[in-house]
Amino acid sequence: MTSVTKRIRVPAGAAVDNESPTGDAAVRSTPLGPDNCPPDVIDSAHGPLSHRAPASVTLSLAQAQQVLQPRSSRGGQLLPGSADSIRLERRLADEAILSEPPPASNNPVVQYLAATHEKLAAEGLPTDATGVRVFVVGQAFLQPGRSLEITAHGRDVVRAIAGPTALATGADVRVMPVNTDDFGRYVSATLDGWTWPPSPREALQKKKVTLKSLGDLGARDLIKSVMESAYYVNSVRERVPSDGKTSLLCITMGDTVANTATLINDAVLTQAEADGSRVSALSEELLSRSLAFPDIDDVGAAGKRVIADEIRVALAREPWASQLETARQALSAEVRAARERGILVIKSSGNYLAVAKAYGVPSDATDNFMAAPGMLVVGAADIGDPDRDDDDRVANFSDPADVVQAGVHIDVGEGDEAGTSFSNPIMVSIAALMLKANPRLDPARIVAILENPRVARKLPGDDRDRFGIVDPVPAVRMARDQAGRSSH
Questions:
Q1: Is the pLDDT score of 215 beyond 60?
Q2: If you average pLDDT over residues 160-183, what whole number do you get?
Q3: Cα torsion angle, 231, 233, 234, 235, sign
Q4: Mean pLDDT computed over 316-331
């Protein structure tokens, strides 16, 4: 149930009511099968996009399997970090950048980014991030025996980092495909006695489903999310050479108790409509428990509260409590090792605060299970009029974060959208410009600059932006002016 940090469709030019965004991101995928593979899919060195035709990412299953061999059976095949693997990852990013027409010039965030470019140029600061390594994870998957599939969400993330109107044009963006078999081995090697959770729909097909079993299902799914985050960091660390250069890792997925409870509750309601007899006892129990929350008018919202409480109880009992602690320790260790290798992990905070508020779950229900100490967590802001600062606000859907950036009225070629899945890549692009201005910066110095009060400005009436909204120009200026590089 790990989700992208929900993409919210907004009609062009419409006022944004971001109190309660609903619905998961619509994720399209492009299957890359064995019948239509161009010979040059991974054969040329990465070059400036302006000098290249639109890249196809069609790839044979055999080629994808070679590039993405599991750790246990790589042998002489293409290794992560090899020249062919890097070419594949770059081609996926190039296709994403070229996949949509340029966004509308009258979009407020497009105008904000264009004005930022002009200010950077006026001060002689970098206006592109050529050569800076940026990894995007969790957006392309090799399904064993099937094909390589790339999400539309992943394309949007790449374009928000280095697309036609983005700040970090020219960055060395790499979309890292995930081998699902490899991920399974990684989790099984870390967690003793681990069993994979079914989807909510699969769970509801069983003869007897109780609220307790749904709590267990949610607990297992959240533990899996922690391991997903650890696996992504581990996989990128394998790909980064020990060359002293800092790399950026963009993670836009997230999972919270509120998110998981919402998905499970929605599955229960869907199943009840399709075949009420199968879940009649569960529905009755859920309704009975929901009556304990008279302040919540909507029965569906009250159901989410009930399931959220069950998940929180499940996470406190065995074996889930021990497995969650082990998973979190593994994630923290991976993030520390990544920092030592010079990798800064930048993570979206999530979009479920308004949903959680609607059904009164405790504040910890929006804690992001895919985050860990050492990551920079990014929330979303509504910047309002791009020519003013006094109307900037934290977006009402945004979960708490270290820093925030524009995350409302984002256009990467598909119309207005919103979510921390967009504020995160914009923050990544700012960090990339900082590295272009001063390649000697390490992750610790980048974070220190982004959280500096001369760079980050607290927004009024809110405590979800711990340090505030980041101003790109002073961030890049301060990066340029830093003397030397601190130790990892």
A1: yes
A2: 89
A3: positive
A4: 94
pTM of the model: 0.82
Whether residue 167 is predicted with pLDDT greater than 70 in this model: the reply is yes
pLDDT for residue 358? 64
Instruction: Pick 210 or 1 by higher pLDDT.
Output: 210
Residue with tokens 């990798």: 343
Residue 459 vs residues 265, 390, 394, 452: alpha-carbon distances, Å: 34, 9, 7, 14
Average pLDDT over residues 439-457: 96
- Rama region for 83: left / alpha / beta (φ>0; ψ in -120 to 50; rest): alpha
Share of the chain above pLDDT 90, in %: 39
Written as one letter, the residue type at 76 is G
Q: How far apart are CA 28 and CA 96, in angstroms?
A: 13
Domains and CATH numbers, the chain: 104-481 (3.40.50.200)
